[in-house]
Design brief:
Blueprint lengths: L20 H20 L14 H4 L12 H12 L21 H13 L10 H17 L13 E5 L2 H16 L4 H4 L6 E6 L5 H9 L6 E4 L10 H13 L3 E8 L11 H11 L2 E5 L24 E4 L1 H4 L7 E5 L3 H7 L9 H5 L18 H35 L4 E3 L7 E6 L3 H13 L6 E5 L2 E7 L7 H15 L2
Parallel strand pairs: 2-3, 2-4, 4-5, 5-6
Antiparallel strand pairs: 1-7, 6-7, 8-9, 9-11, 10-11
């Protein structure tokens, strides 16, 4: 049998001492065992890091070692230096932010992707990276019951972005291209008269996209929300768009949110979509957290109006057992996006691209390079199947509803907003000082991790349930701790 070029240690002319395949096998098994042990004992750890600023930095050498260190030494540093600085997002009592689900099938898919070392910028650079990604986005669109126009054999199609932040930036670039008749991509936005609209509850990535694209924060219109629902007021959106048009402005993008970060508010997408259709404005729907819940038929109401969207995104890396990073982004018609983002230097030209028969995903994103993310998504969707993923979502929704019932039945606390999915916003009865003190006490215990937001001017605690390992007992333990800390 022929031996790999790395079967024996190779000393290059540069003096590099590569890890051999034999060493890789040995150390790789050690790493897998370490990860398995980490998960087996994760409940024993404080949920969030307990280190001082710069403490970890001060524990590491000031300069690169002149000679390589042993793998055993590196793993020792993982235990002594890295772990103390980890906030354990996979901890079953991590309730601070929307989850960042990891699962073993996804981790193994990520490992294979790293081992293959694919740079899938164009179809020709690794055809399977593109073809598998197209298929996975079609699988996901079907599972979530998204519009037919989002499928790869239709005018639109799907792509994996790194995050919903990149998705909204791509949507803005496409919207600018449409609003300008194609001139924005060639001549820039200049002294911009383009405007962007989003709810006051929309994610901060909208504001960042406006800054990056050069539209300018002064041209971002944050539309007020309805009292109680915290959803965008579609009547005020329409008034703002028509006022801007009358003033000579060019509306380029509206961002509607399905499941806001603060409270899981859902904007009236159908009403917003009708306004965008009448005024010719690009509608992007950000369903980063909530969108995957539509895999369950009883949550398909989340898709109401999405058929009017020009683009849509949701994050499998939040609540769908696919480790970060993996944002699923679809467009109803890919032409404006590709026209805005396509650049063709000589060194990227090839016969496959020129044939027009392939998809080059480099034209669907901001950077040129792209990782083989479809592999981990394929592993995850295949391992769990539709029924397994539905069970995962339903489990957390049920836990959230039970937690909300506990809060609602205790006259010392109140549920603050609607909780249709797995986020519950609550507060103790009393002023903000009482709630801020409770919030600090909870996190100081290290036994749970929660976050906060402001709703109607009041300090509110967010209980985001959704961890891969989270069970009912963890939620119950959190509730008992909340009551105990409030009583102190």
């Amino acid at each position: 049998m022929a031996h790999s070029a790395w079967e024996h240690s190779v000393h290059c002319t540069t003096g590099a001492d590569h890890m051999t395949t034999s060493e890789f096998r040995m150390y790789g098994r050690q790493v897998v065992d370490w990860i398995a042990d980490y998960y087996n004992h994760i409940e024993e750890r404080s949920v969030h890091a307990r280190v001082r600023p710069n403490e970890i930095r001060d524990g590491l050498p000031e300069e690169i070692p002149q000679q390589g260190v042993s793998f055993e030494s590196l793993m020792a540093d993982i235990d002594c230096l890295v772990l103390p600085g980890i906030t354990h997002w996979q901890h079953p009592r991590f309730f601070g932010y929307f989850p960042a689900n990891a699962s073993f099938p996804s981790i193994l898919g990520e490992l294979l992707s790293a081992g293959l070392g694919v740079q899938g910028m164009s179809w020709i650079t690794s055809p399977v990276a593109t073809d598998l990604e197209r298929l996975m986005l079609d699988w996901l669109a079907q599972l979530l019951d998204l519009p037919q126009s989002f499928r790869s054999d239709e005018p639109g199609g799907g792509v994996i972005q790194d995050s919903a932040s990149s998705a909204v930036l791509v949507a803005l670039v496409a919207g600018l291209n449409r609003a300008s008749g194609g001139t924005a991509s060639r001549h820039g936005v200049g002294n911009s008269n383009y405007t962007v609209y989003a709810s006051k509850e929309a994610h901060s990535s909208v504001e960042k996209a406006v800054q990056i694209a050069g539209v300018g924060g002064q041209n971002l219109r944050l539309v007020p929300t309805s009292s109680g629902t915290l959803a965008m007021r579609s009547d005020l959106l329409e008034a703002a768009i028509r006022s801007d048009i009358a003033a000579g402005m060019a509306p380029a993008l509206v961002v509607g949110t399905v499941g806001t970060t603060s409270t899981t508010a859902v904007d009236p997408i159908r009403e917003i979509g009708q306004i965008c259709k009448e005024t010719g404005v690009w509608l992007h729907v950000d369903a980063a957290y909530a969108g995957v819940a539509a895999c369950c038929p009883e949550f398909r109401w989340l898709n109401e109006g999405v058929d009017l969207a020009d683009s849509y995104c949701t994050n499998p890396h939040k609540w769908f057992l696919t480790n970060f990073d993996c944002d699923a982004f679809w467009v109803a018609d890919r032409r404006d996006m590709i026209n805005a983002l396509s650049v063709m230097p000589e060194y990227l030209k090839n016969m496959a691209t020129e044939s027009g028969e392939v998809t080059d995903y480099r034209d669907w994103q901001i950077p040129l390079g792209r990782r083989f993310r479809a592999l981990k998504l394929w592993f995850t969707l295949s391992w769990y199947g539709a029924q397994g993923l539905q069970a995962h979502i339903r489990h957390h929704v049920a836990l959230a509803q039970e937690f909300a019932s506990w809060v609602g039945s205790d006259n010392r606390f109140e549920v603050v907003s609607a909780h249709p999915l797995s986020l519950v916003c609550f507060r103790a009865c009393g002023d903000d000082a009482v709630n801020e003190r409770l919030y600090r006490r909870l996190n100081e215990t290290g036994r749970i991790f929660v976050s906060h937001t402001i709703v109607d001017g009041r300090f509110v605690i967010r209980m985001a349930i959704g961890g891969t390992l989270t069970e009912r007992r963890h939620v119950r333990e959190a509730w008992e701790l909340i009551k105990d800390c409030f009583g102190k």
